[in-house]
Structure formats: C-alpha cells, structure tokens
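Methods — Computational structure assignment.
A single polypeptide chain was analysed. Its primary sequence is given first, followed by the predicted tertiary structure written as structure tokens.
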Amino acid sequence: MNTTFIGGGNMATALIGSLIARGGAAAAFRVVEPSPEARNRVVEAFPGLVLFERSCRDAVAGAAVVVLAVKPQQMRAAARALAADLGAAGEPVVLTIAAGIRIADLSRWLGGYPRVVRAMPNTPALIGRGISGVFAAPAVDAAGRANALAILEAAGGVLWVDAEARLDAITAVSGSGPAYVFYFLEALEEAARAQGFGPADARRLAYATFAGALALAERSAQEPAVLRAQVTSKGGTTEAALAAMQAAGVKPAIVAGVDAAATRARELGDVFGRDA
C-alpha cells in the first residue's frame, strides 16, 4: 500500500519502521519533510524511501493513505499546502495523528476534503506498544478505514470510537497516560531510595514491580480491584500502604487529573482550530 507521510519525525519513522518490519517495501513510502537534517535521518534509516522537501503532486500521487504527522501548531500550514494536490491524488484517506486537531478544522484547511480519519496515539507507539483512539469522518468508507487501520496497527492497539468528542477522553486516559505511569515509577523509585536502596537498585525494583504486576493483570480474567484484594492481607503490610494512600486521596486525585486533561484537550482543540 503506497503511503505518504507529511512530516518525518519520530512518530512517522516509528510507523514506517514497523510497517517495513511487517513486510512493507521502503519504496512504497514517501515522506515530505522540509528539514534537511530530518530528511537525512529518514533516508539513512530506510534506503529506497522517496523523499520530498515540500508537498507536491508527485508526493501524494497514487497514495492510499496520506498521514499528517506534524505538530498541531504546524497542521494548518501543512494541510493548506497539501490541499491543492489531493484532488490529483485520487481519493486517499487523510490520517491525522496530531493531538487536538478536529476533523472539521482539518477538512476546512484541506479545501473541504471529506475523507479524514483522526487518531490519538500515545508515545509507546514509538516501540509498537501504543494504543490509538480513532474516529473516521462519515465520508470514509470501509476500505478507507481498513487502510488507516493497517497504518495504526503498526503502532499497537486500536480503539475505534463512535463520536469524535470521545478522542478528548482518549487523550486524557491513554494519550497522557504514559506520563502518569512514569510519575508513579518516579514515586516508587523515590520510596525505595528512602528505604536505603541505591539509585540503580531502586529503579530496578520499581520497574520490575510495575512490569510484573501489569503482565499478571493482562493474563488474568480478574478485574484490578479483585487482584488488589488478593494481595492485600488483613492487617498486613499492603493494607497499611493502601490505607495511607486512600487517606491521601490518591485515587480521586488520579481521576481528577484525567478529568483536567480531558478539559484541556477540549480547550486545545478550540485553540488549534482557529484560522488566525
């Protein structure tokens, strides 16, 4: 499947690398990237890939999917530069992976182009372990959705939503979620150091504990609350720790944090969608 990436940054190169690892040919990918340094990195990583300095008809001709992989602040200019060439490209799906850019705004910048899919991946996508929330505009048919899915599955799991507004919640839960995990790891590592462990051992304990608990949860049919109860003996050490966390309001604070992230996602959608 011929695919054009507008932007050759980390997410684009991660997706291309995963797609090639799955059997894709480098020659099937084209990348539009104005930065000479970034173009050099891309061509060194994927010999045979076709590079363009700016958007043009040749960059998108014959593409089944055009992936907009630029920063939200750059999206309006990138979309307007692309708009004139989309009509000559057939009817590719335009897949945006930029946070906060709504389909109506992107479609307007593309001159009213309707075949748009919006995805919200997260940073573990860089190693193929992410999850993307995805919404397709009504004009995207089943074949177009399948083409977008083929790109996004290279980044990890995919969760389709039935309303674009749900992507703000996806942003709050999984888009920002890796930072919450890293925050917890920071705290657990700090706690281990406070108990007398050196930095290396503290980090090893924190990382292994989190990774092991997650693997156990993924293999279990039980809900997290049940798993928690199973390792919480009455009057034991775990119960003492959880009681202290409950008294500190840890769980409500996490819920409030996600709510704050969702609110900010909606606000940023308004900001990024402005034409001036």
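Note: The mean pLDDT is 95.
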